[in-house]
């Protein structure tokens, strides 16, 4: 079965074709980062405008590069949520209409299920059950995964997502948009021992997160360093290092706690922040000490992409699921509302 | 014989129309904030009712704007998907022109009549057009505009003002005409009539070029 996957939930237009027998056949991505950079964040209306310009050219591109025609596509999967309503509508309406015109099924895919299953596109894919840490600009969640569609939310951020905290802290440090990766770069140059940031909520039981306090702490530390003039590069790097250390440490503590609580030895990390090298190294090191393994997608599939949507759609297609002609996007969509797969 | 399918979702109304064997059929509904759920089922019902496959269309017609940004994109993303997959060309029609054409046909206006469609553009502005009826079709006298009400030039003898933009009439440059109907909305059937000559003349576009005409450009989002 060959599935065309469309992703348009935020600021990247992603299109890919996944074949249930041969794996990924083609993959294309257009990132709107430069479009939103001057605003310091994603502007929903501009994101929607760009998706409607870029989507079809990318579809044509992946069909061409896979040497396929429309009639070779067996189903169309599109992200139906969560995400920006207007942005989701572009991919959902176009995707559903394409499937209708080709006379094939359509699948409405949950964006976070796409992220969660992205490691399945790699050669060393994890087996069920596992714990998934979903960390992006929009989400920080710990989920127990017993199978596709069989999810139990163990904990989540009560305020900012980890990626959002990265971006906001980066802005305070005067780093260019998008701040997360820039902050990680600065942190690599910094002295991690100069400042000690709090580890929010690690002393409380449970698996929830809170990152908004770290922003305030960052703001205060920046103000202290600026008291005698401008923020020096050294100050900036040291604050970035302390901030990243606090986030990585907090995420690691909660991941270990989740594995222990559920008695599991496999952890999947996915979402934009899962590309963070410090987080990957820390998790690999700490999980090795308890005989557990960490799985993650290649960096290109940590961030938003069409491949994960095509893959998740293919799993649901093979389980016999499909969408009606009534297109519905769900800007908010709890993952535990997803139907499980009969196996 | 020209066979065309048209879609409009540029306001709180939603319509799908079919032109086939010289007849025009339309499904027109008020669907505020519900276009995504009904548009494709309406297309399917229309085609099924006339036992026509999508591939038999000569082109797909859509209202390109101005109008609700989200509504325009719902219709246009749908048209893109349909046209791309069925390998059909597309034809854009001005939303304001579709309103004027609908009004002209419904009222049977006289040759040369002036019709001034206006839509509320929010942010204290209106989308405004000046159209004239000749040989069964409305034609623009100048390009559709986005204007503050005070800059609207509504001087035209014997004109009819149509659309919800006329709620701002008392701020327009001139006194409103005798005839104002604020309830007029764009219609897919009217868009079909306007698109037909383009289709016959081969003035069609590939699916990728089905794009909205917002009139309000992105500069409006800077530094808000």
Helices and strands in order:
The complex is a heterodimer of chains A (343) and B (224).
Chain A: E1 2-7, E2 12-19, E3 23-31, H1 33-37, H2 44-65, E4 75-81, H3 85-102, E5 106-110, H4 111-117, E6 130-135, E7 140-147, E8 150-156, H5 162-172, H6 179-189, H7 212-226, H8 233-262, E9 266-270, H9 277-289, E10 293-295, H10 306-318
Parallel strand pairs in A: 1-4, 4-5, 6-9, 9-10
Antiparallel strand pairs in A: 1-2, 2-3, 6-7, 7-8
Helix pairs in contact in A: 2-3, 4-10, 5-6, 5-7, 5-8, 6-8, 7-8, 8-9
Chain B: E1 4-8, E2 13-20, E3 23-30, H1 35-49, E4 59-65, H2 69-86, E5 90-94, H3 95-107, E6 114-120, E7 126-134, E8 137-147, E9 160-162, E10 179-181, H4 188-200
Parallel strand pairs in B: 1-4, 4-5, 6-9, 9-10
Antiparallel strand pairs in B: 1-2, 2-3, 6-7, 7-8
Helix pairs in contact in B: 1-2, 3-4
Q: Termini of chain B, distance in Å?
A: 51 Å
Strand fraction of chain A? 15-25%
Characterize the main sheet of chain A.
5 strands, mixed
Number of helices of chain B: 4
How much helix, percentage-wise, in residues of chain B?
25-40%
Low-confidence stretches of chain A: none
Rounded Rg of chain B:
17 Å
Walk me through what this model shows:
The complex is a heterodimer of chains A (343) and B (224). Chain A has 343 residues and is of the alpha/beta class. Helix content of chain A is 42%, strand content 19%. Chain A has ten helices and ten strands. Chain A has helices at residues 33-37, 44-65, 85-102, 111-117, 162-172, 179-189, 212-226, 233-262, 277-289, 306-318, and strands at residues 2-7, 12-19, 23-31, 75-81, 106-110, 130-135, 140-147, 150-156, 266-270, 293-295. In chain A, the strands form two sheets. A five-stranded mixed beta sheet of chain A has the order 3-2-1-4-5, sandwiched between helices. In chain A, helix 9 (277-289) links the parallel strand 9 and strand 10. In chain A, helix 2 (44-65) packs parallel to helix 3 (85-102), helix 4 (111-117) packs across helix 10 (306-318) and helix 5 (162-172) runs antiparallel to helix 8. Chain A is globular. The two termini of chain A are 18 Å apart. In chain B, strands 3-2-1-4-5 form a five-stranded mixed beta sheet, with helices on both faces. Chain B has a five-stranded mixed beta sheet with strand order 8-7-6-9-10. In chain B, strand 4 (59-65), helix 2 (69-86) and strand 5 form a beta-alpha-beta unit. Chain B is of the alpha/beta class and 224 residues long. The longest helix of chain B is centred in the middle third of the chain and has 18 residues, at 69-86. Chain B has helices at residues 35-49, 69-86, 95-107, 188-200; strands at 4-8, 13-20, 23-30, 59-65, 90-94, 114-120, 126-134, 137-147, 160-162, 179-181. The A-B interface holds A 38-39, 43, 45-46, 48-49, 52-53, 55-57, 59-60, 70, 85-86, 89-102, 324-329 and B 36-41, 43-44, 54, 69-70, 73-74, 76-82, 84-87, 207-208, 211-212, 214, 218, 221-222.
